[in-house]
Amino acid sequence: MGNEQLRDALAHIARCLRSSHALSVALLSSTTHHPTDVTRRLARLTTSGVPLNVACRRIIDHESDRDVLMSLHVLSISASSGGDIARTIDSLVDTLDDRERARAERRVQAATAMASTRLITWLPVVCGGYVIVDNREVRHTLMATPLGWACLVVGVALNLVGRRWTRMLVERP
Q: Which of 102, 122, 145 marks a domain boundary?
């Protein structure tokens, strides 16, 4: 099942709360309309008599997704402190939307960086290959002298190191 619909489930909870439903009823309704793993676990625990804030804390111990953890903390605090819970959950939904947009932007930036890396990696190879084929003296210097071989080895090594370094920077969380 997953938690892909978590944002929709939380928005549904907020709508139910604005319609004067209790938080536990809103949670059960969202589980029906927008099922997620976390809302199903919460609904299962709360229908067995566990208070919502305690149920949230139990699930927090076994959860690693940051959006789910933030949602559980907000629900736990809302359940224990009250107040305008619908507005709090609306703010949570807005925050989750902002975080998803930021993740999407990072993915686009990473793709751009990797495309640039590919270009920067292959451009010297293609240009070097053209010069080697086109110019006899360059070909002789690169292929027949120790200095030429040293230049080729260092160039290829720096190219590979730069590519791996960029990949490491892009894949960093």
A: 102
